Structures are given as structure tokens and as C-alpha cells.
Amino acid sequence: MKMLQNKINAIHKLSKEDWTLLETKWKPFSIKKNTFLTKKGNKENYLYFIKSGIARGYIETEGKQVTLGFAYNNDFTAAIDSFISGENTDLHLIAESDIEGLRISKTDLYALYEKSHAIERLGRLLMEMLLLLMSKQQIYYLTMSAEERYFRFMKQSSHLLQMLAQKHIASYLGMSAETFSRLRKKELKM
Q1: Where are the domains of the chain?
Q2: What's the predicted TM-score (pTM) here?
Q3: Which fold has domain 2-143?
């Protein structure tokens, strides 16, 4: 719980009373590799906090998986489209490794928003952070070459190479597995 508290305090420091309200609603969960946290066509009922492991969000299009993002140690994740709208998601959220974490139901979180302005503010700031990350990713995807995206990823997130299949990283970067492999070989020769 301390890991979650530290993450939350980095976003918005809560009073002791507000933290007590919030912490009682987070429940532990464990999920095995290749198990879905959320599947396309379902409603997202939880916000997850990952203590260990990695999750991958993807959509299926034209018979292939297009990776939209990853969440791992000390990250929040959910099928945000569904969590916010209450509609069915187009996203799959799957465990790429065994995951240990905490989760809070949307119902419990929204009830806490009604009880505490500080917790409601925390929720808004968290959603702003997620929106900013998605916006930056879209800008990088639209304005950078495949090579620029690859080297940016290697500078910021190279540790994920040990945790994920390269085809998923390539998909996330908007390139073919062949292009990813070619850039990887080019980097190793440097």
C-alpha cells in the first residue's frame, strides 16, 4: 500500500483522513500471464495500480494486434475509454507477465469523489496525466520518423526489451517487426 500512497502523493498529496478513505477501497489482485484484465466489448469497472508485472493495451484491426501502450511497476492502467464513458471498450488489456497489484472499482472511486474534493481532484489530475501521455504519444507517432521513434523509445524505455516481445514494441512504435529488427541491428553496430 505504501507504493500506491507514494504514487498518489506524487500526483496530489492527500490529508491523512482522505488517504484513510481512499486506501480502504483499494483491493489486492493477482493475475497470471496471458490473462485479460479487460476485453474488447466489455465495460471497464476498475482502475488498476500495478505493483509488479506488465500489462499491454491493444486493439485488433485487419486481423492484427496494434499495441497502444504498456503499464508496469508503479503505473495505473485501465481501458480508460470505457472507464470514463461507461460504454463497452474497443481495447484489450492483457497481462504480459504475472501481475500483482491493487484495484479500485469505478463505483467506489466515484462515491469517494462525492465525499472528498481532494480525492476528486486527485482523479482529475490522474486523468489529465493519462491524457497528456496519450497526446504526446500521438504527436510522436505523427511527427517522427520510425527511426526517431525507435531511438526515443530506446532512450526512455529500453528496459522493456527484456519484458516484452519485440513485435509488441514494434507495433507500439508504429512500425513493422522487420523495421524494428533493422533499427535494432543498426543501433547495436553503433
Answers
A1: 2-143, 145-190
A2: 0.90
A3: Jelly Rolls (2.60.120)
